[in-house]
Amino acid sequence: xxxxxxxxxxxxxxxxxxxxxxxxxxxxxxxxxxxxxxxxxxxxxxxxxxxxxxxxxxxxxxxxxxxxxxxxxxxxxxxxxxxxxxxxxxxxxxxxxxxxxxxxxxxxxxxxxxxxxxxxxxxxxxxxxxxxxxxxxxxxxxxxxxxxxxxxxxxxxxxxxxxxxxxxxxxxxxxxxxxxxxxxxxxxxxxxxxxxxxxxxxxxxxxxxxxxxxxxxxxxxxxxxxxxxxxxxxxxxxxxxxxxxxxxxxxxxxxxxxxxxxxxxxxxxxxxxxxxxxxxxxxxxxxxxxxxxxxxxxxxxxxxxxxxxxxxxxxxxxxxxxxxxxx
Length: 327
Known about the structure:
9 helices, about 40% helix
């Protein structure tokens, strides 16, 4: 089956995000990062969702508080832990916040990963295949509850993992909320192509040399169901440090940093110029069109460096690339 080649695919203008870790001892810092990001024109703030982590805030409560404190920036779960987020209520939470913020919500969802912790919190035990099946049902239920086209006041769903029996739909979101999938394996990538509005892998789990094959799987799935390639955005989560010096000295750390929640991410470390070059390369060569910076030290200084020094230069270079490509 044919896929869309880089020359044929029309890429959207890039989006830029900042990740905030929901540390319970970092509330003031989270609000400061949100304020700076909002004031400096960053498009999106993302927050990971690990409800079983006792040192973390509840993600939806934190996002709601941060959203109220800002004016323009969007917020996304990156990604919501669906096994512990009952889909109808997850749909209602997202729609509610979207209405209250006048359309500033994106919904990232995942099938679940840390099953011992999920089970310890009273969640289900699922095999990888079951987890993917449950996530597919969850996406369908979320869309039913949102009732975007206003076609049904009641929803019925008879799935293997979830059921609705004449459930009242609504409230309808303020705007069409995109559903992003944290997908790595082939089945999850195909699900992204079938039902997702976005894909949000992390550099540490999906390094650049793996992205083209993963993109191909998504494109094949998009084509198989008759969708268009540009219906699915592609966000790359990039963790690391921006050096204040703009020298050419830069490194890509291949060692993995162990985070408090058990995740492992490759860290990118380098000058402003290095970050500009690598993001532009990811846009041009890998067809990733959104980039969320995860500052390793969670500092406002890193956010300012990214927003003030990296993002404008990336936009300028991508604009030049797009003009040359289309001329």
